[in-house]
Design a protein that fits this description.
EC number: 4.2.1.96
Enzyme class: lyase
Number of helices: 3
Bound molecules: the ligand C[C@H](O)[C@H](O)[C@H]1CNC2=NC(N)=NC(=O)C2=N1
Radius of gyration: 14 Å
CATH topology: Gyrase A, domain 2
InterPro entries: PCD_sf (IPR036428), Pterin-4-alpha-carb_dehyd (IPR050376), Pterin_deHydtase (IPR001533)
Number of strands: 4
CATH architecture: 2-Layer Sandwich
Number of domains: 1
CATH superfamily: Transcriptional coactivator/pterin dehydratase
CATH class: Alpha Beta
Order of helices and strands: HEEHEEH
Structural class: alpha+beta
Pfam family, one: Pterin_4a
Keywords: Lyase
Length: 112
């Protein structure tokens, strides 16, 4: 069975469907270190990664930027000393698409 991190994002059209509640319940279990936040009515996936210092946090941030460009799907990123907060949602549909779960799983792989 293909895991989320092995999947590719699909082009995110403005009329693409948000994940249903049932899909959300199934997909969130596949990325157990991620939480769901709602900001300005927009559902988002979020995880905080901890690092030993700012240099390591920045190195992770740069790898994430490359990943986002490869998939042309981009996160919110807050990079601080020893900490990177990553937030995934689909701007075009103002909510969560399967792409966001794929990218969250791929983000976790950057730690390997
Ligand atoms: C213009 C629009 O932002 C682009 O088509 C892409 C770029 N990256 C993106 N990233 C995310 N997270 N959501 C989008 O809808 C999105 N759209």
């Amino acid at each position: 069975m293909t895991t989320l991190s092995e999947m590719k994002c699909e082009a995110c059209q403005a009329d693409a469907p948000k994940v249903t509640e049932a899909e959300l319940a199934e997909l969130i279990r596949m990325i157990p270190d991620w939480g769901v936040e709602v900001r300005d009515g927009i559902m988002q996936l979020e995880r905080v990664y901890k690092f030993k210092n700012f240099k390591l946090a920045m190195a992770f941030t740069n790898k994430l930027a490359d990943l986002a460009e490869e998939e042309f799907h981009h996160p919110g990123i807050l990079t601080e000393w020893g900490k990177v907060t990553v937030t995934w949602w689909s701007h075009s549909i103002k909510g969560l698409h399967k792409n966001d779960f794929i990218m969250a799983a791929k983000t976790d792989q950057l730690l390997d």
